[in-house]
Structure formats: C-alpha cells, structure tokens
Amino acid sequence: MTVDVFSATAFGGNPLAVVLDAEGLQTAQMQSIAAEFNYSETTFVLPPREKAHAAQVRIFTPRTEIAFAGHPTVGTAVVLARELEARGASPPDDLVLEEGVGPVPVRLMRLRSTVTGAEFQAPRALELGPHVSLEDAASCLSLSAVDLYADISPRVLSVGLPFLVVAVASREALRKAKPDIAAHERILPPIGTDAVFAYVRGDAAEELHARMFSPLDSVIEDPATGSAAAATLAFLAAQRPGRDAETSWRITQGVDMGRPSLILGRTTKRKGVVAAVYVGGQAVNVMRGSLDID
C-alpha cells in the first residue's frame, strides 16, 4: 500500500510505501525495495514480538534503515487500521508499533467511526545535541547568517531521530532555502545527523512553517517530517514560560515543493519539564499492488 501522510487529499503530504507481508524478506531485499520506491521512507510490517502490540515495523530510507520516523509511524498505523476495517473488524483506538527505537504508542484519529489518521507519542524525551554556528547552519541552507533567527542557536535535536534544527528569520528566507550538499557533507556527519529541519514562526506563536533537507540520505527535500517536528516542538515548549501547560501546535511543510502538508502537534509540560510530545495528522490511500521478487 502507498499512502500520502499529513494530508487530507491525494498527492499532498509525504508519500509512504507500506509492505504488509514482509516475513521472509532479508534486510538487503528490504533496502532494495526502499530504493526502488525511492520515497523518503518505506516500512515493512512483521509480526510483533509482544502479543499485545500491533506489529513490528522496520523503516528504511532509500539508503539505510532507521530506528524511528514520524510519517512512517502515522502512515503504517493508518494502513494497518484500514486493513482491519476492510476485513470487517473494528481497529482499537490505541495500538503500539515496535520500531527500532522501541515501542511507539499510537492513537487512531476517526471521523464518524472511519479511521482518517493517527497520532503518535514521541518515543524518547528531548535530547539536546551539539550547537552549530549561524554561518555553518546558513551554509547548509544556501543562506546567509543574517537570514537566520539569531536568538535561537542552531543545534541538533532528537526524540528518536536527530536533526539539525534551524530557526530562520522570515518566511521569505525559508522560501529561498535549498540544500548545499558540500556544506551538508562537511558539517552534518561530525555532529551525528544527515538532515536539516528549518522553520519560521507563523502568525500565531503555536504555528510554524517548515522545510527539511537530507540530500546525504537521497532525500533532497521531505514534504513532512513528523520526527523533526516532534523534537522541535519539545524544544520550543521547554522554552516557553509556565511550569504546567498543554499546548496545541500546527506545522505546515511541503508548500514550497508543491506537496502541502499539515502536521498537528501537542505538548504537555509538567513542573517546568516537557513530559510528552504528540504528533499526528491525516493519511489518504493512493496505491495498492504487489512486488514480484525472488
């Protein structure tokens, strides 16, 4: 199955391929299949290790296997739920996917009892990685240092998958950003990542516009990046005043590449600490087919 994730209509959002019957496939075959689809990620569904869980899910980019990612989590949960619906069963509201990072809790989103999307809880607390200079971060985006928001230092953030997260100064700066592969090769591997997530505040404090570039992983630009969104929201929520808060967020991504996406986020803050981060959105079916392989 393929689905477009973080979109309510086909040909928007981030495409995902879900291989439902992956038992018997070797790792090298999974990698070849992911490269064949050439989406930012492809998932492979296997029986769960724990009986109470929905499935074991392996996630591959065109180049490598990764332990966790946002839009594959949302899209795979929706595909599994719709497969149950097609067989006349009612999917549970909550399910757990076993990913490389560990168990990932997911809650299904419904409209009049029909599954329309899913929301996952970030599997790890926010991890703060190395800082990067404004000049180096700007060079990764083919921008100048003056195009960045100097009050927030670019740094690596992760809730399961690391990204260099960069705040830019304006929507126009975000619009003109593009990856500089030489800068990515020089700057990113030494700080433990291969991707840059750039964002700017929208009209409301809880609204962001974003873009993500990962040419070192064969993804020039990603239309919607749930794992990077979760890490960024956790970081921003931690900076906000107040010890206890429930905040809802909206992130638009993919607009500048013609695949508009909407990521919905929630953060829970208790006693001054971000206790939980949730990211979700809708997903729509696009294709169903079979793979002819030995």
Can you walk me through this structure?
It is a single chain. With 294 residues, the chain is α+β, with helices and mostly antiparallel strands. The chain has two domains: 2-120, Diaminopimelate Epimerase, Chain A, domain 1; 127-281, Diaminopimelate Epimerase, Chain A, domain 1, CATH 3.10.310.10. Helices cover 21% and strands 38% of the residues. It has helices at residues 27-37, 70-86, 134-140, 171-176, 181-187, 226-239, and strands at 2-5, 14-19, 42-46, 55-60, 65-66, 94-99, 102-111, 114-121, 127-131, 155-158, 163-167, 196-201, 207-214, 219-222, 245-253, 261-270, 273-287. The protein has an eight-stranded mixed beta barrel with strand order 1-2-3-4-6-7-8-17. Strand 13 (207-214) and strand 14 (219-222) form a beta hairpin. The chain is globular and about 55 Å long. It starts with a strand and ends in a 7-residue tail after the last strand.
What are the main properties of this structure?
Diaminopimelate Epimerase, Chain A, domain 1; alpha+beta
Give a topology summary.
Layout: E1 2-5, E2 14-19, H1 27-37, E3 42-46, E4 55-60, E5 65-66, H2 70-86, E6 94-99, E7 102-111, E8 114-121, E9 127-131, H3 134-140, E10 155-158, E11 163-167, H4 171-176, H5 181-187, E12 196-201, E13 207-214, E14 219-222, H6 226-239, E15 245-253, E16 261-270, E17 273-287
Parallel strand pairs: 2-3, 4-6, 11-12, 13-15
Antiparallel strand pairs: 1-2, 1-17, 3-4, 4-5, 6-7, 7-8, 8-17, 9-10, 10-11, 12-13, 13-14, 15-16, 16-17
